Amino acid sequence: MKHDKGSSRPTGKSGSREEPYFVYGNTCMTYEKSGKQDIFKSNGEIIKRIEVSLSSSTVGITSSSSGYTMSDFQKDIRTQVSNFLKPSFDQIVLLIGAGGSIVPRKAVYSTRKTDDPCAKYGLPMTKILECIDRKLSNKHSGGVYTLDQMKDKSFQDSSKVPGNDLEALLSQFEKAEEFVSPSPDLIYKKTLEKIKSIIKEKTRYNFEEKYMNHLALINFFNRRVAEGNKLSIVTTNYDTVLEEAAAYGNYTVFDGFTFGDNPTFDAKMFDWNLVKDVPNLETKELIYDRHVINLLKIHGSLTWNKEKNGGIRKVSKKTNKSPLLIFPSTNKYEQSYRAPYSDLFYKFRELLNRPRTLLVTVGFSFGDTHIFEMVNDAIRHNDGLSMLFTDYSINWSNSQNLAALKKRSEEGYRIAFLRATLNDDLPKYLEVAEND
Question: Strand locations in 219-371, DSSP E?
């Protein structure tokens, strides 16, 4: 499905704090904080509140930008989101990235009115890198190199050391391991394993309904899937928040593993559903269980364990000392072509190419090029695909892949961009659509 091609709207002068909040077709809604003044715009024009006053003999109509508030702005965006979601979809795919697990401090601590992530839950890669730096520098860290020492040993040219890019650093650390002197450098190897263990540690949080909206998101979109289809959730996260949220909502989860006490990976599980016969009818009509979802963890999980015979089993994350994960490095592209990841990516691609499909991205900035290419191909070749991108920021200038999606939108493909996060304001923007 395509819309008429719309013009590209300016998002503010260079250096300004004007940010796009909702962009789709000919609509671009932006917000800017200028001193103490809030400036709300639609397609470059300041939005004004229209007020009508009545007297015994006259009707007065006035407009003013001062009476228009953030609450009004969010209400107007809710209407835009509702209109975008109006078409009925046969199936819906949620693509959830690291941002989907982030909980702002203001949600947890009433005294801290900040959007910064709460350290108890999901953290962006930059914050995880800060944790790695602190732990490696700790004198009680147990005979490992500091992060600076790892950089010195891995990069011959100090000018090429990336700043806060954990993926780039870990990629170089892995590449340089066999060349570091002395060979083998056991401390270097130990430090590399320590870095990976810190990444695992920082993703071991649990679902908490009080602060997390994962179940609300599942409920909202599950109601909009056509009968006979399942809501499909694709995630790059290792954590078990989605599984726990689904269990809390009494959902049956098809995650590629067999059911039973000793679940093993079998990609054919995604093809199954839960149905029952309609009683007292001569026809063979079936009723589909609506509380069933697909979950594709395309970068692995804290509950996956690879056995000596090559099989994959699902175990408790509390006892799993060697979870099967694709770590944030350039090696993840190569690993995605191996089992079980290849089966999951194949299923993901197949879902994206089905007709009348809605793809909703949550906290996923498309930094993974192999995933971007898959989505980009589906957008270009599947006229029945619509996409709603949601993230804490819509910054096309900082992401080549995101800029490419903006170009697709300008070419007429049905793609909308919404500045929102799952555990903060996204549920507010879905409210109108939920109650329509």
Answer: 231-235, 252-254, 275-277, 286-288, 292-297, 300-306, 312-314, 323-325, 357-362
CA dist., res. 374 & res. 317, Å (int): 30
Question: What are the start-end ranges of the E strands in 312-435?
Answer: 312-314, 323-325, 357-362, 385-391, 415-419
Residue 319: count of CB within 10 angstroms of its CB:
8
Structure tokens at 184: 């083998």
CA 79 to centroid of chain Cα atoms: 23
Name the band, by pLDDT with cuts 50, 70 and 90, for residue 419.
Answer: very high
Position 338 scores a pLDDT of: 85
| Token pair of 11 as six digits | 């998002």
Predicted confidence at residue 283, as pLDDT, reads: 67
- The answer to whether 245 touches 218, Cβ cutoff 8 Å, is yes
Integer Cα distance of 265 and 339 in angstroms: 10
- DSSP E strand boundaries for 139-277: 231-235, 252-254, 275-277
CA 434 to the chain's CA centroid: 21
Question: What's the CA gap between 136 and 144, in Å, rounded?
Answer: 7
Nearest CA-CA partner of 44 in 80, 81, 7: 7
Question: With contact defined as beta carbons under 8 Å apart, do 379 and 413 qualify?
Answer: yes
Q: Which residues pair with 61 in a beta bridge?
A: 52
Q: Are 371 and 361 in contact (CB under 8 A)?
A: no
Which residue has tokens 């790059």?
Answer: 236
pTM of the model: 0.89
- CA-to-CA distance for 55 and 48, rounded, in angstroms? 23
Closest to 242 (Cα-Cα) out of 98, 435, 428:
98
DSSP string, 282-316: SS--EEE-SSEEEEEETTEEEEEEE-TTS-EEE--
Q: What is the mean pLDDT of the chain?
A: 88
Tokens read off for 203? 């993703």
User: For residues 232 and 94, is the Cβ–Cβ distance under 8 A?
Assistant: yes
CA distance 80 to 29: 10
Closest of 300, 304, 359, 362 to residue 335, by C-alpha? 300
For 387-422, b where at least 16 C-beta lie within 10 A, e where not — what string?
bbbbbbebebeebebbebbbebbbeebbbbbbbbbb
Partners of 338 in the beta sheet? none
